[in-house]
Design goal:
Two copies of one chain form a homodimer.
Chain A lengths: L2 H11 L12 H5 L5 E2 L2 E2 L3 E3 L6 E4 L10 E4 L2 H9 L6 H18 L3 H12 L6 H15 L6 H37 L5 E5 L16 H8 L4 E6 L7 H11 L3 E4 L4 H6 L5 E4 L3 E3 L4 E4 L2 H10 L4 E4 L5 E2 L17 H4 E3 L4 E3 L12 E4 L6 E4 L2 E3 L3 H7 L6
Parallel strand pairs in A: 6-7, 6-9, 7-8, 9-12, 10-13, 12-17
Antiparallel strand pairs in A: 1-2, 3-4, 4-5, 10-11, 11-16, 14-15, 17-18
Helix pairs in contact in A: 1-7, 3-4, 4-5, 4-6, 4-7, 5-6, 6-7, 7-8
C-alpha cells in the first residue's frame, strides 16, 4: 500500500469524495483548482506542457507582481527552493519532486539519483516534507532501469502534487468543523482567525493547509475574518493577504507584535498555523514567531491548531527542542526589505543580525493537529489515533 | 516639596551622588551627558542657546542620518511629537515641557496656557509622562503674572530635563544590581539582555531607562550582550542598535518573532523594557509586542523587568486592561517602510491594516519594576513600598 493510496482510502472512508471518484483522480473530483489569480484557476506548481520543465509562481515578486517562472534543470529548482522563489513545506516537497524529475531527464544514472537527492535535500533544513518527497522520489526510480526513470519520476512528481491537493482539501474539511463550532456558539459574530506566515495555496500545490478550513468556511457562507501577521523577516503575511484578497475574504494585516494584544482583547476566536515539521509527540516547528502566538493563545484561552499534512510529521523525533534543525538564514533578510521594484535598508550593513527561520511550539501549547485524517490532540497518543500504522 | 526635590533627595539618600553635589546640579555631578554621537556628548533635547527654541534629534532619520532640528513654536513641537521626530515616554514629556515654554514665549495668557496644554496633550494618548509634564508645566506658571511665565516655564522645562537625567542614572544604578547578580552566578558567561523597542538615551533626555543598567554595567567592565528586537512597525530596534554601536556594546538585532526562540534555547538571561504607562497595580503598558516577550520570559523562567521613571506611573489606574488608551496609528506605518533615502511598500495601498501602538503586560508577568528609588515587585504593595506617599 503506497502512502498515496493509503491517504486517499482514508479520505474516502471519511466520505469526503464524490461517489465514483478514483484514488488517482480524487483531487480533480472535488476542486480542480483553488488557486485563483485574477479569477483564473491554476496550481502553484506544475510540469510544463512538454513535461521537460516545471512552472512555478515566483513568490519573491508577490504581492506586487504575479510572475510564472519556468525551471528547466534540477539545479534551477534547488536554487528556487533555497532562495525562496517557492516556499512552504508542502510546496518545497512538491518542488523537490519536480526537481528530481528534471535530474532524471538530464541523467538517469544511480549517481544522478544520489546527487539529486543530496543537492535538493541541502537546500533547506527544516521542512520535513523535503526529505519525505526526496526519499519517495528516490524510491520510485531505484527499482527500475535508468531509461525508464524519467517517466517514472514524472508520474510520481505529478502524483505528489495531486496528493497534496487532496490532503489539503481534507484538512480544510476537518478544520471546517472547528470553525463551524465557533460560529454555532455565537452566530451573530464574525469568526476571527489569526494566522502566522503563509500556509495558504502558495505554500502548497493548491488549497493551503492552515487557510484551507477558512476557504471552505467562506464558500459555505460562514462570516470569516482573518488577522494576518506580517511575519518578518520575509513578510509572508503579504502573501496571505494577497491570497485572501483573491478569494474575497475579509482580512486585516497586523505586525507580528500585535497578535498578543488582539488575543488579550477578545478579538481572536481561533489561531491556525501551518507547520514545517511536527514531532511524533505533537511539538510544532513552524515559522519563527509561532511560539509567541501560541503562548498568547494559551494565556487567553484561545485554541491554536496546526494544520499538517502527513509528510510534515517526523516520526523519528519523539519530542523536545533538540531534534529539529532550525535554519539560520542570511542576515541581509532582516537588514533589507524589498518592495515592488526596489529595496531599502532598515539596518546598516555592519549591524550584527541573527536570522532564525523557525521555532518550536511545545505540544502543551497546541490545542490540536488538523491532518488529512481528522483532528487529534497534539500528543503521541493523539497522532497515533489517526496514524495507528505508526504505533508499536 | 516639589517632585524634583523629592526625587533628588531620594537619590542622595541612596548614596548615588558625589559628595557636595547640589540637588539642582545632581545630573551634572555624575555624568554630564551620556548621549555620545561619534564621540561627542550631547543631550537628546535642549533649549537653543538663545532660549527661544528647542533643539531635538530627528529620530525619523536615524540610524542612517544624524540630524538636529530646531523647533521654534509650540505647534512645531506638537507635530514633532505626533509624527515621532521625538518619541519615548520620558522624551515625549520633556519635549512637551519645552513646547509649553515656546507657547508662553508666543503668548503667556491664561488662554494660551490652556491651549498649549490641550494641543500638546492631544499629540499622543498612551505615555503617562506627557500628561504629567503638561500638568507640571501648567502648575509652574498658573500662580504667577503672565509677563513672568515664559521665564518660569523655561526654568521648569530645563529642570524636567535635568531631573530625567538624574532619574535615569538612578534607574541604571538600581538595575546594575540585577545584572551583577546574573554575572556573579555565571562569571565566565556574557550577560545576555533582551530588550524591545528603544528605551535608551534616545527615548529620554539622556541615559535611557531600560538600557541605563546596561550602560553602567558596560562601564563597570561586565561582559554584556544585548538582543535587540527590531520592533515593527516603526523599527525602533534600529535606534537601539545605533545607540549600542555608539557605546561600543556588543549586540545582535533580531526580528520580533525571534525573542521566544532565543529564550527557549537559554540565550537570554534577563529582559528589560521601558514603559509608557504603569498602573498602580504594576501592569506595564509598553510598545506593542512587549506582552509576547513577557509571556516567553515567564514560560522559560527568565526575569523581565520594566525600567520606569516615576512620571510613567499612573496612580489613577488600579490595574486591568481597560484604563489605558492604546494608540492606533496610521496603517501606512505598517504598509510602507523607510530606509535612508527612500521607502518601499510591503503591502498594497488597499490592503486592510490595523496598527496598535502598545499593549499591556499584566503585572503577573513582570518580575519587577526598576525605578529611580529602587527595584520593587510589580504590584500595588511593591510600588507603595517605594512611593509610600501615594498610599492611603
Amino acid at each position: 500500500v503506497s502512502a498515496s493510496t493509503s491517504v486517499s482510502r482514508s479520505l474516502r472512508a471519511a466520505g469526503q469524495f464524490r461517489p465514483g471518484c478514483s484514488v488517482a483522480s480524487a483531487a480533480k473530483c472535488w476542486y480542480p483548482s483553488r488557486v485563483k489569480v485574477d479569477g483564473t484557476h491554476r496550481r502553484t506548481i506544475a510540469a510544463s506542457p512538454d513535461g521537460r520543465a516545471v512552472d512555478i509562481i515566483d513568490q519573491r515578486r508577490l504581492p506586487h507582481h504575479f510572475v510564472i517562472e519556468r525551471l528547466t534543470t534540477m539545479l534551477d529548482v534547488a536554487r528556487a527552493i533555497r532562495e525562496m522563489w517557492v516556499r512552504g513545506a508542502p510546496l518545497i516537497g512538491a518542488a523537490a519532486a519536480h526537481g528530481f524529475h528534471l535530474a532524471m531527464l538530464e541523467d538517469p544514472s544511480d549517481a544522478s539519483v544520489e546527487r539529486a537527492h543530496r543537492e535538493l535535500l541541502a537546500t533547506r533544513p527544516t521542512a520535513n516534507n523535503l526529505r519525505w518527497a526526496l526519499d519517495d522520489m528516490r524510491q520510485s526510480v531505484l527499482g527500475i532501469p535508468p531509461d525508464r526513470r524519467a517517466a517514472a519520476a514524472a508520474r510520481r512528481a505529478n502524483a505528489i502534487g495531486d496528493e497534496d491537493v487532496a490532503i489539503n482539501q481534507a484538512i480544510g474539511r476537518h478544520g471546517l468543523k472547528l470553525l463551524s463550532e465557533v460560529h454555532r456558539k455565537n452566530p451573530s459574530k464574525r469568526i476571527d482567525i489569526l494566522t502566522h506566515c503563509n500556509a495558504g495555496w502558495l505554500a502548497t500545490v493548491d488549497f493551503g493547509t492552515a487557510l484551507a478550513p477558512g476557504y471552505i468556511a467562506h464558500d459555505a457562507g460562514l462570516p470569516l475574518h482573518v488577522w494576518v501577521a506580517e511575519t518578518r523577516p520575509r513578510v509572508q503575511g503579504a502573501l496571505t493577504a494577497w491570497e485572501l484578497a483573491q478569494e474575497g475574504i475579509p482580512h486585516t494585516v497586523i505586525v507580528d507584535n500585535a497578535g498578543g494584544h488582539l488575543m488579550q482583547r477578545g478579538r481572536v476566536d481561533l489561531c491556525i498555523v501551518g507547520a514545517d515539521r511536527v514531532t511524533s509527540a505533537g511539538d510544532v516547528c513552524n515559522k519563527i514567531g509561532t511560539y509567541l502566538k501560541a503562548l498568547a493563545a494559551k494565556d487567553n484561552g484561545i485554541p491554536l491548531y496546526a494544520a499538517v499534512p502527513y509528510p510534515t510529521i517526523d516520526w523519528t523525533l519523539d519530542g523536545g527542542l533538540d531534534g529539529i534543525p532550525i535554519e539560520e538564514r542570511d542576515p541581509e533578510e532582516v537588514r533589507t526589505v524589498h518592495g515592488a521594484d526596489q529595496s531599502v535598508r532598515l539596518f546598516p550593513p555592519g549591524s550584527p543580525v541573527a536570522n532564525y527561520g523557525f521555532d518550536v511550539t511545545p505540544a502543551r501549547l497546541v490545542s490540536g493537529i488538523i491532518t488529512e485524517r481528522g483532528v487529534c490532540r497534539a500528543s503521541r497518543e493523539g497522532l497515533l489515533s489517526l496514524y495507528p500504522e505508526r504505533g508499536g
